Amino acid sequence: MALNRIQYPSPGFSKHWKESVGKRMLKRVSSIPTKEHIDSFNELYMCCDTLADAVVVDLFEGLGHKRGHQLLHILLEQGLNAVPDIPDSLRALYTSALHVPEWVDDVLLKQGAQFCQRAGVFSLITLRNYSLMGGYESAAINKPLIFTGALKGGPAKRLSDTLKFWVDVTGCGAMKPAGAGFNAAIQVRIIHALARYYIKKSPEWNDEDWGIPINTGDMVATYLGFSLVYLEGLRMLQFKPTLNEELGVYHLWKYIGYLLGIPQELLPANDKEAIQTLYKWTMTQPLADVDTIALAHALVNAPLSATFPNKVWQKKILVKIYLGFNRFYLGRAACNRMHLPNTIFKVIPYIAASINYVHECLVLIFPSFKVRAIKKGRNAQVEVTDSFLKSIGYKK
């Protein structure tokens, strides 16, 4: 099926590979995916997590939403023995998730989590202003957000859910079965299927335009936002992950992606595989439309509607700082396409990068400094996340 969303070469994203960051990425791969490789990837837009879809039908439609959420909560908190009457589809999904694949390496999981932690608040800044904002350049991947009321509800819900999820899955030991990150991944997997179920019920949704909502191809791209794009953004800020830390981040998110229902053969294990996969996704993406531009502006202005920070002038400065990071990460052309204004605060990332460079030298030279950086960075992440969630009245 030739989907209307497919535009080759992408009128927007293809330009990234001709700019500094894209050129730097392509130098790290031995070959660039061909049109045939890209066409093969495009087939993933008509694929989805069918096991989770069966859970939605059996759990929420079969038992009702209230009872369904109760059973899911008990399952995640207490395990299978506490819910002997759950649907077979949910039992199958959870049982398969409990089976840890042989390729999962606990040492790499820990190294990946610790690097995420030692990047401190810059992890959150990069995810917000590079991974998330950069995704708004594509109208296709964000169309399900429109159908779930993201414009009407504002960015707070997505930001809070993403922050909470990221903090949960990047804790040390969090991905062990029944751990905080493991449970968060299972819950998000089912939430995605629930959203897909109701989006497809809308008479306005057309698979021939956008593919299946929350499809496998776009899930892979989202996963890359947490691994490849995240790592590249931190490198731009002069963080220097070691090879083991880099592999650890990919390994951590490969396992998370596996728990989210993405076929493991689609999940890159290293930098080269990730770059080639991102290239295949980006090269057919349509430009941002009025909906995604509105989502981008809602994200920029999110601090104005929160109670953290306290002062109005602090909120306005924070908006300018975020715009500065948007321009630093995405470049002038992408920001102009999304109508994101220029600001003098674009110098902030360069100042931060200079400070980070010195900090990273100390981390790489002194092991004790690295240990302190991990602890300090994690505390800062939890503190900022908790303050943000509290400021918007977040409810799990």
Structure write-up:
- This protein has helices spanning 20-26, 35-42, 50-63, 65-78, 88-98, 106-118, 121-135, 143-147, 150-153, 156-169, 180-201, 207-210, 216-226, 228-236, 243-259, 271-282, 290-300, 312-330, 332-337, 348-365, 367-391.
- The chain is mainly alpha-helical and 396 residues long.
- The protein is globular and about 55 Å long.
- The model has no long low-confidence stretch (mean pLDDT 95).
Topology, pairings included?
Layout: H1 20-26, H2 35-42, H3 50-63, H4 65-78, H5 88-98, H6 106-118, H7 121-135, H8 143-147, H9 150-153, H10 156-169, H11 180-201, H12 207-210, H13 216-226, H14 228-236, H15 243-259, H16 271-282, H17 290-300, H18 312-330, H19 332-337, H20 348-365, H21 367-391
Helix pairs in contact: 3-4, 3-5, 3-11, 6-15, 6-21, 7-14, 7-18, 10-11, 10-21, 13-16, 20-21
